[in-house]
Amino acid sequence: MIQAIVFDVDDTLYDQQQPFRNAVYQIVPDFQAEDMHDLYIRFRVHSDEIFPKVLAGEWELVTMRNFRIQQSLKDLGYPTIDDDTALAFQAIYENELDHITMHDEVKKTLDYLKKLGVPMGIITNGPTDHQFKKIKQLGLFKWVRPEHILISQATGFQKPEADIFQLAEERFDLNGETTLYVGDSFENDVVGSKSRNWQALWFNHRDRCLPEGAEAIYDIELHDFDQLYPTICNICTPLTV
Q: Where are the coiled-coil regions (predicted)?
């Protein structure tokens, strides 16, 4: 049975595509709505591929941020945007992120876990200040103790590296076999948590396909925010009554 749950942040605790969508339309007003999902997925792919180079000091953060939106648009056949436009996109995107809100079903789930006394934690990839700002905006300290939050840049490790999950075990006092990790990325969240024998819930609400040749190693797959609360209710062991 599950005795602790650790969550991803981006596109798991809130809908990350909404602020992204708003920023895209401001820099590419004629962007086609039917391409938004694919653009967002490409944006996330490039972020995940390049951020390790930022951690290693090989790329500047601003270079990575410019590249991911420039290349994502290029991948879909849209005209290339220059660095100034890419910087403008990032500024708008960050402003939109200042107004993110937690999905109602996520809040309901966290309230339920808190009432049961189930320990919770956060593991998220990204720049420390940027991710911490989102954590505060979402009000996560209501449910998660600050010392039970790991941000990749601050640790020197990042998902899917096993090291960041091992660090969580040590700092959060977890038993991996009775801990569930909930995240939207198969490569980062499922593969990463499984490397330490955690239980894995792939929150696949973007209906992504498994990477070519990958095995379905997750324990649970969900496709909608409305599925989260009843699923968690069914699998958690109350620690307090």
A: none
